[in-house]
Amino acid sequence: MEVKNCKDCGRLFNYIGGVRLCTECKKKLDEKFVEVKEYIRENKGATIPMVAEACDVSQKQITQWVREERLEFSEESSVTLQCENCGAPIRTGRFCNMCRAEMTRNLQSAYAPVQAQRASKDGAKMRFLDQ
Questions:
Q1: How many angstroms separate the Cα of 107 from the Cα of each of 98, 116, 128?
Q2: CA–CA gap between residue 54 and residue 40 (Å, rounded)
Q3: Whole-angstrom distance, CA of residue 79 vs CA of residue 62
Q4: d(Cα 81, Cα 63) in Å, to the nearest integer?
Q5: 95 near 83, Cβ under 8 Å?
Q6: Model confidence over 16-58: pLDDT tens digits?
Q7: Considering the chain, what percentage of its residues have pLDDT values greater than 90?
């Protein structure tokens, strides 16, 4: 196990992976997330700066939660982010639906020849376990 300092409070903790926060700071961050989520639910027209000020959370943290698809602003909200690929306005995540579909098609087309090659290679062979 690796020992690191918490990036918020500086305490030492056993680092397993992910965000470099101790369990106490993770718990506080999760509580802030619930608070932000409730505020957005109650104030549908709120902007990111409004939410950040009301809940005492950084705008960067709120944007990160939106990019991670943990938060989504309603249709009534004026909050939009930009698709990281084409720049289209989106309400949550990193990519718009069109870019996601395109990436999915590209990955499937890249994987199809590999899958077909494996099927043709292994299909006609007989295998023996004891040799």
A1: 14, 15, 34
A2: 10
A3: 12
A4: 9
A5: yes
A6: 888 899 999 999 999 999 999 999 999 888 889 999 999 999 9
A7: 65
Residue 77 burial by CB count (10 A; 0-12/13-18/19+): exposed, middle or buried?
A: middle
Q: How far is CA 96 from CA 17, 18, 26, 30, 121, in A?
A: 29, 26, 30, 27, 38
The answer to whether 70 and 45 have CB atoms below 8 angstroms apart is: no
Q: Who's near 7: CB < 8 A, 6+ residues apart?
A: 19, 20, 21
* The two structure tokens encoding residue 53: 């000020």
Collapse the DSSP code of 21 into the 3-class scheme (helix H, G, I; strand E, B; otherwise coil) and give the result.
coil
Residues 66, 90: Cα–Cα separation, whole Å: 10
